[in-house]
């Protein structure tokens, strides 16, 4: 025996051999249990090794599981036309080892998180997916089989993004759909077009954003940074809420930023002030507008989680990384200069997409939300971002703004 072991040929199954009087059985869903005929008892643990086991796969092709009149499970082999009480899956059982969640950090790439994952049963919508972090997020999901919809404002850029992903994998299920978050009408049309496809929606990533752009009023009469980063997403989630609910458990990820820490939103009475969110031109400072919009992202994510988690929709906010060289800096030369200087020290696009991807699929986050993540790690946002009263007040104001423009039935 020792010689066999030395040669690597020892009988590794021997320890799994059952003592006399014991029989191995399986439950309907593939868990192995052990029955002792003499003592008339059953247990999950192997009587010798104490290990728990489960079937490694599904029933072989042509087999079916049925239950007889006494409630006992039996198996029908339709190909060979025979019936047995022996579960054919018992030939391939594996030890039930508690797999600890992997630890990720700021160096983790999105594709690393998805390693080994088959997402072919998932439908994902990502706003602003034609460039930067959104593009890498979309690509990562698509390369793992998910059906990915790139919700973008520019048709040409979106088409090019789809082409690039399909160039990496010709079977990637990606398509672009028109969505301009600066227009509530466009958000509504996007939602209608998406619903017309009769698809479920498992993951919605609110990623699109603009930073330090000159003051501009949207067709809905609001400052554009606020509308693109927050209100457009707020309305989008309202429009898609029923689809998300039907696909539950579903997840929403809102891409925010650490810059949320450098501002607040409330007036002296503690109410969210629309003049701070959507200021007139003479009171507009582009960086501050961005910070406020990013604070809105976390408040919205938390409130959304409070409201929708009872229906199986969870929501988390993320910071993707600092000063990553995407297109976000292009509106202001000073930002472009700073982003260029920082470029050698910042995350790659794949690393920038990692926290979003983590929040969208990590099994250990199933059912969990209302949190803020950075480097795939839960961290505390600013006190203001955690303020439930502010979140409720922002929700109320956002609902009013949408209703005033789209109609009372909009929310
Ligand atoms: N880069 C960073 O260092 C950093 C840091 C913290 C947080 N973030 C956040 O990460 C997210 C993604 O930004 P990014 O860095 O990847 O920048 P990006 O490359 O500029 O991507 C932003 C995306 O949003 C889209 N977008 C802009 N306005 C839109 C609108 N009205 N409707 C629909 N889509 C619109 C852009 O489309 P177009 O191509 O048509 O403009 C683009 O696809 C943003 O929410 C940003 O705040 C980025």
Automatic annotation (TrEMBL):
<keyword id="KW-0560">Oxidoreductase</keyword>
<dbReference type="InterPro" id="IPR036020">
    <property type="entry name" value="WW_dom_sf"/>
</dbReference>
<dbReference type="InterPro" id="IPR002347">
    <property type="entry name" value="SDR_fam"/>
</dbReference>
<protein>
    <recommendedName>
        <fullName>WW domain-containing oxidoreductase</fullName>
    </recommendedName>
</protein>
<dbReference type="GO" id="GO:0005739">
    <property type="term" value="C:mitochondrion"/>
</dbReference>
<dbReference type="InterPro" id="IPR001202">
    <property type="entry name" value="WW_dom"/>
</dbReference>
<dbReference type="GO" id="GO:0005634">
    <property type="term" value="C:nucleus"/>
</dbReference>
<comment type="similarity">
    <text>Belongs to the short-chain dehydrogenases/reductases (SDR) family.</text>
</comment>
<keyword id="KW-0053">Apoptosis</keyword>
<feature type="domain" description="WW">
    <location>
        <begin position="57"/>
        <end position="90"/>
    </location>
</feature>
<dbReference type="GO" id="GO:0005794">
    <property type="term" value="C:Golgi apparatus"/>
</dbReference>
<keyword id="KW-0597">Phosphoprotein</keyword>
<keyword id="KW-0333">Golgi apparatus</keyword>
<feature type="domain" description="WW">
    <location>
        <begin position="16"/>
        <end position="49"/>
    </location>
</feature>
<dbReference type="GO" id="GO:0005764">
    <property type="term" value="C:lysosome"/>
</dbReference>
<keyword id="KW-0677">Repeat</keyword>
<keyword id="KW-0521">NADP</keyword>
<dbReference type="GO" id="GO:0071560">
    <property type="term" value="P:cellular response to transforming growth factor beta stimulus"/>
</dbReference>
<dbReference type="GO" id="GO:0019899">
    <property type="term" value="F:enzyme binding"/>
</dbReference>
<feature type="region of interest" description="Disordered">
    <location>
        <begin position="1"/>
        <end position="24"/>
    </location>
</feature>
<keyword id="KW-0963">Cytoplasm</keyword>
<dbReference type="GO" id="GO:0009966">
    <property type="term" value="P:regulation of signal transduction"/>
</dbReference>
<dbReference type="Pfam" id="PF00397">
    <property type="entry name" value="WW"/>
</dbReference>
<keyword id="KW-0879">Wnt signaling pathway</keyword>
<dbReference type="InterPro" id="IPR036291">
    <property type="entry name" value="NAD(P)-bd_dom_sf"/>
</dbReference>
<dbReference type="InterPro" id="IPR042732">
    <property type="entry name" value="WWOX_SDR_c-like"/>
</dbReference>
<dbReference type="GO" id="GO:0016491">
    <property type="term" value="F:oxidoreductase activity"/>
</dbReference>
<dbReference type="GO" id="GO:0006915">
    <property type="term" value="P:apoptotic process"/>
</dbReference>
<keyword id="KW-0496">Mitochondrion</keyword>
<dbReference type="Pfam" id="PF00106">
    <property type="entry name" value="adh_short"/>
</dbReference>
<keyword id="KW-0458">Lysosome</keyword>
<dbReference type="GO" id="GO:0016055">
    <property type="term" value="P:Wnt signaling pathway"/>
</dbReference>
